[in-house]
Amino acid sequence: MRAIIHRHGLYAIALVAAAFLSCNTRENDGGTTISCTTQQELTLSAMDTVILFEVKCPTPWEAAVEDPSWGEILVTDIRDGVGGKFKLITRVNHNETPRENSVIVTSGTESVQKTITQEGLGNFFNPRMVNMTDVREASVYFNSPSPWSASVDSGKDWLSLKTISGEKGKSTLIVTSKDLNENIGQRDGSILVSIGKHSFTIPVLQGQRDAILLAGDSTTEFPFPSCTFIIFTTYNVPYLVSVSEPWITHVDSKAPSQNSTETFFLEENSSKSSRKALITFQCESNPAVSATVTVIQLGKDSILNITDAGIYGMGELDVVKGENGWNQTSAIYSRSGNNRYRFINAKGIKVIEISSIPKSARINDSFQVSATIWDGWKTALKDSRKVSLIGESDELYWLKEGENSYMIIEK
Q1: Architecture per CATH, 3-121
Q2: Cβ burial 321-355 (10 Å sphere, 16+ → b, else e)
Q3: Which of 34-43, 148-157, 395-404 is the least confident region?
Q4: Contact assessment for residue 342 and residue 330, using Cβ atoms and an 8 Å cutoff
Q5: Which whole number is the average pLDDT over 364-368?
Q6: What is the tens place of the pLDDT at every residue in 10-64?
């Protein structure tokens, strides 16, 4: 389908065409020569919307566009016996790929055809998609027909812009990321660029780096008793596990896709000194990709050599069974599983009660206990302490609050 437009709009077209069709002068018996030129390139950018043509022709002529869905003719000048000028007005090409149209100038039986190519967005923005794998900054170049602005449309948690606006002409949009994507898996974002009344989306992706990630702290501390512990890993490369000291044994790996549960056995530390070991997870093909956990195991606490029930190093709570009138004790068991223990001074009419001791507690467990002092019928102190179970026998629990602060509780 062709659309034909001349100087005075649609009705003028018929008149000019009719005059042309009735024209048959002797001067043209030898044929009509048409020249259609433009100072512009016949390849437009996606945002270019006007191209000007000049026609040289000694007889009446007409111009048509082959595909009127995205181009139309506007005649700006007609000169009898000389030619004239017209514009091809297009729409912005929102497609990624180029498109073509043809302008056809006809006079009598002669015609000239010009092919117009309008590039797509894939050629307008360079690059069309920003790949930030292994980089923290990237640039997008384009030639803007008018002032522009930009904003982060998605990926705001990791993506930002150094330039958010610019003027007409050659422009650079600078995109930055907060890091090199140490996570597992690709992350995606997008930039919204507004030029005049048109908006365009530029996709941004950042591929994952080779990584081995560990859940929790890079340093972990254990008391002296033996125990089994677990380290959770997330990864995208195969890795090997190594342990620097013989008192830690790598027991097992359970590795579903990209996640693993690594189990280790820690032997008892029978010395009074702390000791340290390193557990390393290292990529098989690239040793530079690794993660390390530092394990510190405390020495055996000297409090475990004491078997007298009491509270040590806790200020006004301090008491030792059998001293200063504290000759009685009692244990109270509840159905909830949280037990209470009392030191009783019958002579001074005083009671110290330690409650919320979980019956199910195991070595290395930490929990909150409540401490209450009754002086006669009056409550002299009510406090809460966080303790760890560091030792257990058939008769006693050893609880540790901190350095030199302990409770030895009779079962």
Answers
A1: Sandwich (2.60)
A2: beeeebeebeeeeeeeebbbbbbbbeeeebbbbbe
A3: 34-43
A4: yes
A5: 91
A6: 222 222 222 222 223 333 344 467 787 877 778 999 999 999 999 998 888 999 9
Could you tell me which CATH number the domain at 125-206 has? 2.60.40.10
Residues 74, 76: Cα–Cα separation, whole Å:
6
Q: Closest by alpha carbon to 123, among 91, 145, 94, 161?
A: 94
What is the arrangement of strands in the sheet containing 198-206, beginning at the earlier edge strand? Answer: 130-131, 198-206, 187-195, 148-154, 165-166
Dihedral, 163, 168, 169, 173 alpha carbons, nearest 10: 20
Name the helix (H) or strand (E) containing 101: strand 99-107
Sole residue written with tokens 């190519």: 117
Query: Strand, helix or coil at 122?
Result: helix
* The CATH number of domain 212-297, selected from 2.60.40.10, 3.80.10.10, 3.40.50.720, 3.40.50.300: 2.60.40.10
With cut-offs at 50, 70 and 90, classify the pLDDT of residue 256. low
Per-residue model confidence (pLDDT) at position 338? 85
**Secondary element (H or E) of residue 12:** helix 10-22
Terminal CA-CA length for the chain: 99
DSSP string, 155-192: -TTTEEES--EE-SEEEEEEEEESSS--SSS-EEEEEE
Q: Please state, in angstroms and rounded to a whole number, the distance separating the CA atoms of residues 266 and 228.
A: 6
Which pTM does this prediction carry?
0.53
Residues of CATH 2.60.40.10 domain(s) within the chain? 3-121, 125-206, 212-297
pLDDT at 13: 27
- Return the residue matching tokens 């690059």: 127
77-105 pLDDT, tens per residue? 888 778 899 999 999 999 999 999 999 99
- Cα angle for residues 137, 130, 164 (degrees, 5° grid): 65
